[in-house]
């Protein structure tokens, strides 16, 4: 890209050289509004620091209305003779706003720079455009930007008296199972960004760029963790079974964490079959639950399923669940990796998407399926989901959109 651009002044006969950072904000806004894909945004932001700052400030007004999340797809390889899957070697990035659904991003962005050695670590989750990995050998958590490859390494995880056994690979404490989760409370650029690490009875908090963890032992053990979503200072934890736990972060990390347990109400909707594990989704501060079920399927559609969506209302004295029939002008993106929270995108029709639609990531030839909320679809579309490793595709917004 050129380094200078001629600018037209009020006099038609006079021209003066003008650098890219000196372009007026009105012109930058016109250029920005014409960006149609995330790769255009990345190119725009790479021109100079001022353009990146302009893009960041403009995005902050409506971060989920401009572009959809990216689908992070692992490159799966198989042993040529033994027919077994080899470790993930790289991650591909897919953009659902592209004209062709499975078309990769531009050459400079179509492959995440995350190294193969890191992908072999224990995958905890994806949060705010960063992948979270646990190194058992170093006992540290790695926070990686999947676009730039920039790394943040936590201090050594503190070890309570009974925490040492968590790092032993035996039947009782198996790190490949759902016994640990992690999330960021905010984008890493935020001054209050905190890394949350949850493992059974231990909740550990690390404020980014600080030197120490703060430990918060829980009175109740959470042995089989499914999903964790952070909304404000509340941590919603979904366990295997019918229990939903809510933890409230203290203002001061040295204070005590407030813990409460509520009964999981989704299973009480009907006596029908729940085909998929429920998913928690943060929708602009409200907690939604999405599950795929065969409840109320017509006789001629016994092999079909549909989505049911509810909203948790915990503001009143009596906690209740409100069923939602339509998403309106929104779309939800659910990953094939259960521990990665769902994403919400407003006004998806701006980039060619569908409103009132749920985008399910799958591990098949078609990397995702689109399902209208509340409408029945063949259940075979959902056979490759609910996984717990980064060997399966998952959605996340790049950090520049947060």
Describe this structure in words.
With 402 residues, the protein is mostly beta strands. It is built from four helices and 26 strands. β14 (234-239) and β15 (243-248) form a beta hairpin. Residues 1-17, 103-109, 169-177 and 265-272 have low confidence and may be disordered.
Quick overview:
The protein is mainly beta. The protein has helices at residues 25-33, 38-45, 49-59, 116-119, and strands at residues 4-8, 15-19, 70-74, 91-94, 122-127, 130-135, 140-145, 151-153, 181-184, 194-199, 202-207, 214-217, 225-231, 234-239, 243-248, 258-263, 279-283, 286-293, 304-313, 320-324, 330-334, 343-346, 357-361, 368-372, 377-378, 394-396.
The CATH architecture term of the domain at 4-58 is Up-down Bundle
User: What oligomeric state best describes the polypeptide chains here?
Assistant: single chain
Which stretches of 5+ consecutive residues score pLDDT under 50?
1-17, 103-109, 169-177, 265-272
Radius of gyration: 23 Å
Topology:
Elements: E1 4-8, E2 15-19, H1 25-33, H2 38-45, H3 49-59, E3 70-74, E4 91-94, H4 116-119, E5 122-127, E6 130-135, E7 140-145, E8 151-153, E9 181-184, E10 194-199, E11 202-207, E12 214-217, E13 225-231, E14 234-239, E15 243-248, E16 258-263, E17 279-283, E18 286-293, E19 304-313, E20 320-324, E21 330-334, E22 343-346, E23 357-361, E24 368-372, E25 377-378, E26 394-396
Helix pairs in contact: 1-3
Q: What descriptors fit this protein?
A:
4-stranded antiparallel sheet; mainly beta; Monooxygenase; 8% helix; globular; 402 residues; 5-stranded antiparallel sheet; single chain
